Amino acid sequence: MRAWQVHEPGEPVDVLRLERVADPAPGPGRITVRVLAAAVSFPDVLLCRGLYQIKPAMPFTPGLEVCGEVLETGEDVTWPAVGDRVVGLSALPHGGFAEHTVMEARSALPAPEALDDPAAAAFYISYQTGWFGLHRRARLRAGETLLVHAAAGGVGSAAVQLGKAAGATVIGVAGGPDKVKIARGLGADVVVDRHREDFTEVVAEVTAGRGADVVYDPVGGTAFSGSARCMAFEGRLVVVGFASGVVPRPSLSGALIDNYTIHGLHWGLYARRDRPGIRRAHEELTALAARGAVSPLVGERLRLADVADGLQRLVDGTAGGRAVMLPD
Question: Which residues form the Enoyl reductase (ER) domain (predicted)?
Fold first, then answer.
């Protein structure tokens, strides 16, 4: 089969090689799937650079989020069955940017019937992350104000939709008119173009000076420091990632004086420590998808040969929504 391989760390466009490799075998507790679609995500960039928390032996194939059809099951697998359509995480070093991949059977979940293959691939981590960030960590309530950074990106767009589904007033922050249009189309009540406006001033205006009850920040850097200046009383600032490349150093005196809390969110810990919680979240998210309340923002639809360039566009910040690979 064909698969993208990383033999040494570096920028995706420099180190990814499309090669012929042997078809993977599932092994105990695992399944082999035919890749129907694989979402392109920032963790895949970090994997290529050798900076992700998981460091698979080289060579490896990146591509963490997959929608696939089960081809073979290993020993001790009672579900899923051959032919089932599933979503889940690939089991590195066998990533999803290939024709076939491997999953841990326990990480696989039924693909939502309401979503096609590209949308289903883009659904798993982004919406699980949003659900745990907004509901488990921040306890978002109807009527509250939610500020979402990178609102036109894969992670942020999910948070915008989930915030609206929860009954919040959503302020989205995006970069440039095209992304502003995308965020507005997702349902954000107010959208700030960060290239032209100061989002802290907009939050103050929209909330009559009260501030944001919940901030969802996958960016870090100045997005975090600005958010800290516009938190409501007993607000919750959820740290989701550092797409800006800058890990902020929070002022704990600010958190004390203004009575807001900072919540870290590493979704992977829930995947390891709370599988029942993951399944419950998936059931709720699937129900939201079935009634049209959420729908993944799929941007580029890449062929297998286009993956390296697609990952580089993600690095450059020119992609809107989730790029998804569809094998030829």
Answer: 11-325
What does the pLDDT look like over 158-173, one tens digit per residue? 999 999 999 999 999 9
**Mean pLDDT along residues 223-231:** 95
Query: Could you state, in order of their start, the residue ranges of all structural domains in the chain?
Result: 2-115+296-326, 130-268
What torsion, rounded to 10 degrees, do the Cα atoms 254, 208, 151, 85 define? 100
The sign one gets for the Cα dihedral 246, 247, 251, 256 is positive
Nearest-angstrom CA–CA distance, 203 and 275: 36
What architecture does CATH give domain 2-115+296-326?
Alpha-Beta Complex (3.90)
Helices 275-290 and 117-131 cross at an angle (nearest 10°) of 120
Tokens for 55, please give them: 């460091």
Tell whether domain 130-268 is in CATH 3.90.950.10. Answer: no
Residue of 224, 230, 180 whose CA lies nearest to 202: 230
Distance between CA atoms of residues 226 and 221, nearest Å: 9
CA–CA dist 232, 172 (Å, integer): 17
